[in-house]
Design brief:
alpha/beta, Rossmann fold, 3 domains, 7-stranded mixed β-sheet, 4-stranded antiparallel β-sheet, binds adenosine-5'-diphosphate, binds magnesium ion
Length: 320
């Protein structure tokens, strides 16, 4: 149900569930687990039985406390490490190692310090299109650099750039290879609030314009609300589980500075914060009866009945 509908029609329980269908699976995480050897010949299970389908063009954020295995999940998606169990299918093929189809943006930007901005991005372009002529490589690199707002800084070295500019180069480098999937591990967490906001705007604009499929880890609830179509909530580790998949009820056409005026914003934000404060722990200890890890509950926080009733009482003209 769209948030653009009259308020009264949103008066319904805070959560509802639906099952995903097989057509939703551009990325299909199927029963993956990660275990490490523990003292006494035992094993520690970081997470297990993790299932998640991602649609083509979807922006998925994963939220959970430190140590629940988010980076590990992202590394598995990148092909940097293998799951102890289970498989990840991307566009019909099981992941086996890294691929230029899946670009990663890390929290640290890992630029080559001796290369210029152009050199760093061109290096990625030429590894993607090995037979491309120099002029084509440069044109592709310049286009990606312009996309992230760095035109004019092509010849600067990383040491001459601010943290935000370095992260822009990391984004340009990832985008320049036209990946099928963009993987981001807390990409903005080291930046000041102003730069973070600007880069969130850039990433959002680029992803909406290009229909990029994105899997991003964040611990910033507001970042997830602004960027994500769906937000995956992980219980605390060890033995972390996907507690819920939260559908973002806010319209796809979002303005970061106006989000807090959108109907449903506070319901969503409160739901996420309540999860991080208490439910991430209590659900780890006891999942609700009938919990099925293959089909975690899909939740769409909406106005509480009391809130909706109060709003309709104030604005009778909006009654459905
Ligand atoms: N090589 C390893 N041996 C044992 N435990 C590890 C190893 N690498 C990671 N872990 C553990 O896996 C857990 C999940 O790590 P990580 O995926 O980085 O979590 P997150 O990104 O959610 O903070 C952590 O508790 C970490 O200590
Ligand atoms: Mg991490």
């Amino acid at each position: 149900m769209s948030t653009l509908l009259p308020f009264a029609r949103q008066a319904r329980p805070v959560a509802e569930t639906r099952r995903t269908t097989s057509s939703d699976k551009f990325i299909s995480i199927e029963g993956i687990a990660r275990r490490y050897p523990a003292p006494g010949g035992k094993q520690t299970t970081i997470f297990e039985n993790l299932w998640l389908p991602v649609r083509r063009g979807e922006f998925v954020c994963m939220i959970g406390h430190s140590g629940c295995g988010k980076t590990t999940v992202l590394n598995i998606l990148a092909g940097l490490e293998a799951p102890s169990e289970g498989v990840v299918i991307v566009d019909g093929q099981a992941i086996a190692g890294t691929s230029l189809d899946r670009a990663v943006i890390f929290q640290g930007h890992a630029l080559l310090p001796w290369r210029s901005v152009l050199g760093n991005v061109a290096y990625a372009v030429s590894s993607r299109w090995r037979k491309a002529k120099r002029a084509e490589v440069e044109a592709r690199a310049r286009k990606a650099i312009a996309t992230v707002g760095l035109a004019g800084s092509e010849h600067k070295r990383p040491s001459e750039l601010s943290g935000g500019m370095k992260q822009r180069v990391g984004i340009a480098r990832a985008l320049s290879i036209e990946p099928k999937i963009l993987l981001m591990d807390e990409p903005f967490s080291a930046l000041d609030a102003l730069t973070r906001g600007t880069l969130q705007d850039e990433v959002r604009r680029i992803c909406v314009e290009t229909g990029q499929t994105v899997f991003m880890i964040t611990h910033d609830v507001d970042e997830a609300i602004y960027l994500a179509d769906r937000i995956v909530l992980m219980t605390n580790g060890p033995e972390a589980k996907v507690a819920e998949i939260v559908e973002n009820p806010l319209p796809k056409d979002r303005d970061r500075t106006q989000l807090h005026h959108a109907p449903g914003y506070y319901a969503l934000r409160n739901h996420l914060i309540d999860f991080l404060v208490t439910r991430s722990r209590t659900l780890r200890d006891a999942m609700p009866e009938g919990y099925d890890p293959m089909h975690p509950p899909v939740v769409r926080p909406s106005l509480s009945e009391a809130d909706a009733a109060a709003i309709t009482a104030e604005k009778p003209a909006l009654r459905a």
